[in-house]
Amino acid sequence: MALIRLDAAGVTVPGPPAERTILAPTTLELAERRIGVVGGNGSGKSTLVRLLNGLVTPTTGRVLLDDVDVARRGAAVRRRVGFCFTDPSAQLVMPTCVEDVELSLRRTVRDRATRRAAAIDVLDRFGLAHLADVSVHALSGGQRQLLALAGVLATEPDVLVTDEPTTLLDLRNTRLVAATLFDLDVQLVLVTHDLELAARCERVLVVADGAVVADGPAEASIAAYVASVEAGGPAGAGGSGR
Amino acid sequence: MSRGIAVGLYQPGTTPLHRLPPGPKVVGLAVASVTIVAVRSMPASFVFLALALGLALLTGVSLRLLVRSTRPVLIAALVVGAFQWWFYGRDKAIETLVDLVALAVLALCLTASTPVNAMLDALVRWLGPFRRVGVAPERVSLAFALAIAALPGMVELALETRDAARARGLGRHPRSYLTPFVVRVVSRAQETGDALQARGLGD
Fold it and tell me: Across the interface, which of A55, A83, A99 has its CB nearest the CB of B115?
């Protein structure tokens, strides 16, 4: 497993009217295989995970992946840390399924025939091979999310960060995507509102008002989160939703 | 299921046009385009259209795809044709309309027979010599691919925005539709930028 280290990493954005803290300086070491992140809308959890592959740069402190500074060597880190978004539509940039996966492989596989064969192999692993030449716009929500995952995992990252991957899906597709995620042989950092999904992680972080307020085994963290919500505690409100 | 247009959609096949590398196809399209625009004759326009449709048939483009892909061009061509009729008369209007449709059908033959990745490979190859003057061929080709891919996505966003405006009873006023559409397009562009960065494309 990769060791992800946040060393007093925080994010602030300038005003007006005043500088705002999206994520307070946070120190963490993440080495578990399955890590969940829960919290209310706008709590700062997306900002926290976006730090992990350099989509957001910390304004204080630093983020390290196996001692490699994400801010300084973003390209190298992004080759090891894949990222999936809530809405796969923004992530699918090519007209057909196989072409989208091929796009991910362009850097590593130069020969076109080999690249196409490799892309179809990847699609096959996700049960999408029969849709290889179908338009990405003709897919169902679940198929789109699986294709987005396939596009990211085609490059064989060590870590996969997924930001609410099941939020837009129905129950059947949620189960399909969840089963796929938890079967993967990569380190998984999963932001989710689905507490059943979070409960399957070894470690869960609870984010509220731009800070990690609970961190531990899934059962304890989720209980703390639920208790906080039921007590009318901060469900978020501090972040930007990003 | 999307209601988007099918621009840029590759149709797998083994026709002669499918087997041809992208380079000769692009050069052929350029030569045909210049010829169609340069030859000023209504009968010739119909010949060009017939040839373009024949090529589409040969490429295995389905009638459904042909109709879906050329419909937006046909609408634009009708508008342009109407102006031409007003200013220059019937023959000129018909010639312009038929020429535009023929060009759209030829472009469809190219995209239907050429995977976008094959076009990207070709672009990277062609732009290789410009590396020494600071051009990044991979980035240019990626921008090209995004431009093609963005069209159906924009249509999808436009239709969603129109439906949302109707659902809120905002009627047909352009302001109730265009402002949210532009906001959503910008938002989608930012998300796509993030997604490309997350995938390490353009690093």
Answer: A99
